[in-house]
Amino acid sequence: MPTALGLAGLALATVPAIDLAQLQNAVKLEALLAKAQRLQDIAYATEGRNRQYLSPGFANTISWIKDTIEATAPGYYKIEVQPTTFQVPSADNPFTVGGTTYNAQGFETDEGIPVGSWTGVPVVAVANLGCEATDFPDATGAIAVILRGTCNFSVKSSLAAAAGAVAVIIIDYETSTEPISGDLGPPEGLVPTAAILYQDGQAVLSLIESTPDVTADLSITVTETQSEQLIATTKCGDQNNILMLGGHADSVTAGPGINDNGSGSVGILEIALQLSKFEPANAVRFAWWSGEEYGLLGSYYYANNLTPEEAAKIRLYLNFDMIASPNYITGIYDGDGSAFNLTGPAGSAEAEKLFEDYFTSQSLPFQPTEFSGRSDYAGFIDIGIPAGGLFSGAEVLKTEEEAALYGGAAGVAYDENYHEAGDDFDNLNHECFIQMSRAIAHATAKYASSWEGFPDRGYPIRRREASIRKRRAPHQHAGGACGGVRAVV
């Protein structure tokens, strides 16, 4: 009597090789929209009405994706629910001055979160914006309070350290409704740094002015969070030459995140389901990441925990983060560096060219988008894995030239509902959604069939000397995808 494994092998033996046009045409808008609606239903069935990575909405998203794959493509994929553990800035860092306690948001560096606890230490106000050494009084043993603006947080923190400060409190802009999440970059020469709201900062400055010898207590801590993410790899195909596709499955807390990034999650899910009708020559791996909106947590966790041998088997990583923006552009990651002067690892240029050729064949416009470190490709590029992908735009305003190319409204954001409650099912641009999803199917079929013309990875993998995230700047989503970035200035 044949075993279950034998039956699975018999079933796979009857599956045809991949046909580029068939896989592409198998992706239907109706199926994409039905799955996007399902993600909204999952979010709205929870109290938070979102899919934030620590929420029931996110856990239910991962379960639904897993169940959908297992029901539609039984036995085709090796499925792993990967537990993840992250250290993130604590939500409550008490900063007490003159008997009043304010909440401070701790900042990160490239190597973690500087922490510390101080009781009864002096607190000093820094002149101007704390961007020059002359702005600082003697801050020996004190907490330096500095207005946000003009120069990077790292400059303020390093100058405070040089003046003798033990920590820095940044007063956020008046328009901010919650303390900024900040990134200090390389940790050398800095002190622990955190931010408070503008109105809280003004109260602290008034107290410092009226009570020159006032003291403060401050505690900056980290919280360990646990989540999970889903990895599905075809059982057939060359496991030493893997094509990997990914997109984050989490949303921000404000809403269900149906464009950001329900669209990318659904796009790669639909392609994973349709791929199961074929037998790839090369293995294909799909990933639905956790914690992208809080600093690319899941994808970095995955990349940083790959052994060199495992990393060498991934020939290319393709990232899909926002592929149905209502006022869209068709952005292709600038793998060859010709537009933004940052070249991806060898193979990234070829991935860019593949998408360019595809959209050209469809008589569709496209443009380069920057590897800015703002989405889940960053961890792969950092360890030398070539990357590419598509992006339809976030909060940047569409130009007149782009409106002439793609339609839509000039002077309006690519996605006016970016990171808002309004990023729901009705926020999706159907034309963009199907165009980009079929482009993903084309790339999947191409590289699952053959790596001909694609650069050899080589071995060992060359890890980059500096993280791509060090290049990132706030509010440049036109060139870098949707989230996961903390402000640097």
Automatic annotation (TrEMBL):
Q: Report the domain of life of the source organism.
A: Eukaryota
Q: Which residues form the signal peptide?
A: 1-17
InterPro entries for the chain: M28_fam (IPR045175), M28_SGAP-like (IPR041756), PA_dom_sf (IPR046450), PA_domain (IPR003137), Peptidase_M28 (IPR007484)
Disordered: where is this region?
469-489
What does the record list as GO biological process?
Answer: proteolysis
Q: Where is the Peptidase M28 domain?
A: 230-443
What would you give as a GO molecular function for this chain, any one? metal ion binding
Q: Keyword set for this entry?
A: Aminopeptidase, Hydrolase, Metal-binding, Protease, Signal, Zinc
Pfam families from the xrefs? PA (PF02225), Peptidase_M28 (PF04389)
Q: What is this protein called?
A: Peptide hydrolase
Organism of origin:
Microdochium trichocladiopsis
